[in-house]
Design goal:
It is built from 17 helices and 15 strands. It has a 7-stranded mixed β-sheet, with helices on both faces. A 4-stranded mixed β-sheet has the order 1-2-3-13. The chain is of the alpha/beta class. The structure holds pyridoxal-5'-phosphate. Pyridoxal-5'-phosphate (PLP) binds next to helix 6. This is Aspartate aminotransferase family protein.
Length: 449
């Protein structure tokens, strides 16, 4: 297995040289919130795979649903008026929980595609209204919006851009991330920091010209950029500013969607109304590759008029609204209802956040931050000055290795340690996760002495 993988498999988001040297970590089985590797070791999956397996790693109902749908209609497309019952029902179900209940749903296969679709729809919408100069998209430093060409170009993370984003473009412009711990000036409270973020955003819009800006895209909680939770009121003020300038607000809910922050969608937790949303991951609990873009009625009406003039809405993916992925996603949403997912997150979150914040006094931890069932610890060399470790020391990566030795899987985003467990986790498992993390931190501290 190990040699075969090294021979043929080029892994995503992996240092190829480390893979060549150390080989892959092969996972063979899942059980509840744990996964087991090829040596037989089991781990609590503290990241729900990649922020997605809300229902854990074994759900017989989802397996049965996929099996049944495979035997009913295993594959079909939705181009040219074709539809299938699971896709139809899934679109209805999504609208019933979304803040744009009279809107429309466009399906795809991943979060990146859902983001790309939002950007294309933003351009089509502005063009439909006779505002075709409105092409620029505001993204933010630290943002992660996927790995397609547009996703990378929207990304505020250098390693995602690499040489792989469109650099010589006049389209994507960047605002600051609302990252109080790292970006606040001396003595800036969360409130005064949020006010500065807003006036800087306003200045950016004035500089670029509102007549040139189509939309701003935001992750309600910025995930891969460091689990950044904005200060109170930030999004409400951003929304008001964008409305004043006739700029669309796009909420990338690929991580926050489906209960993670204590509401169905992150925009509801933070009190703003987006014009469009991208969803994926939790939509099928990661059991099938599926994504979707939800749009308001107003967007739909304008783009459908424009597409009608052009003769077709010339966008779509072969597997959009695929019957098997749709059936599994629909069943996932039914299970979320049955287990009262939102109530469950709100009640579990109390224990989760209490454990998380209990690390705030730890000598290596500069900040603990969390909301709902997503959180992070930020490692620092000096707690008082907030000085980070030199990146070459790879302290965050080392902690993840030590955590695996202790039987938990977490993810380091530089020296920020993300925690985003399955939403079916039990309180005792949350306690075990944090106790193992505490042991791994002690191991790290010993190594650093
Ligand atoms: N948007 C956000 C906020 C994400 O976190 C991700 C993936 O982590 C994506 C988009 C891309 O999703 P995918 O990997 O399914 O293309």
């Amino acid at each position: 297995m190990d040699l075969l993988d090294r021979h043929a498999h080029f892994h995503p988001q992996t240092d190829p040289k480390v893979l060549e040297r150390d080989g892959p970590i092969v996972f063979e089985r899942g059980n509840g919130v744990t996964v087991t590797d090829s040596s037989g070791r089991s781990y609590i999956e503290g990241m729900a795979s990649l922020w997605c397996a809300a229902l854990g790693f074994t759900n017989p109902r989802l397996a049965q649903t996929a099996h049944d749908q495979m035997l009913t209609l295993a594959s079909y497309h939705t181009f040219n008026r074709r539809a299938n019952p699971p896709a139809i029902e899934l679109a209805e179900k999504l609208l019933s929980i979304a803040p744009m209940s009279d809107g429309k749903v466009s399906f795809c296969n991943s979060g990146s595609e859902a983001v790309d679709t939002m950007i294309k729809l933003s351009w089509l919408y502005q063009s439909a209204r006779g505002r075709s100069r409105k092409r620029k998209i505001i993204s933010r430093h630290n943002a992660y919006h996927g790995s397609t060409v547009m996703g990378a170009t929207l990304s505020g993370l250098p390693h995602v851009r690499g040489a792989m984003a469109v650099e010589d473009n006049d389209v994507v412009i960047f605002a600051a991330a609302p990252y109080h711990y790292r970006q606040a000036q001396k003595d800036e409270t969360p409130e005064t920091f949020a006010a500065r973020m807003l006036s800087e955003l306003d200045a950016l819009i004035q500089r670029e010209g509102p007549e040139n800006i189509a939309a701003m895209i935001v992750e309600p909680v910025m995930g891969a950029g460091g689990v950044i939770i904005p200060p109170e009121g930030y999004y409400r003020n951003v929304e008001a500013l964008l409305r004043r300038h006739d700029i669309l607000l796009l909420s990338d809910e690929v991580i926050c969607g489906f209960g993670r922050t204590g509401h169905w969608f992150g925009c509801q937790t933070f009190g703003f109304r987006p014009d469009m949303m991208s969803v994926a991951k939790g939509l099928s609990s990661g059991y099938q590759p599926i994504g979707a873009t939800l749009m308001s009625r107003e967007i739909y009406q304008a783009v459908s008029e424009e597409a009608g003039r052009l003769g077709v809405f010339g966008h779509g993916f072969t597997y959009a609204g695929h019957p098997v992925t749709s059936a599994v996603a629909l069943e996932t949403l039914r299970i979320y209802d049955e287990i009262d997912l939102i109530g469950r997150v709100r009640s579990l979150s109390k224990a989760f956040l209490a454990h998380l914040h209990s690390f705030s006094d730890h000598a290596l931890i500069g900040e603990t931050r969390g909301i709902g069932m997503i959180g992070a610890l930020e490692l620092v060399a000096d707690k008082v000055s907030r000085a980070p470790f030199p990146p070459s020391r790879r302290v965050g990566a080392r902690l993840i290795e030590l955590a695996m030795e202790r039987g938990i899987i977490l993810r380091n985003l530089g020296d920020v340690i993300a925690i985003c467990p399955p939403l079916v986790i039990e309180e005792a498992e949350i306690a075990a996760l944090f106790s193992r993390l505490s042991d791994a931190l002690a191991d790290l501290q010993n190594e650093l002495l």
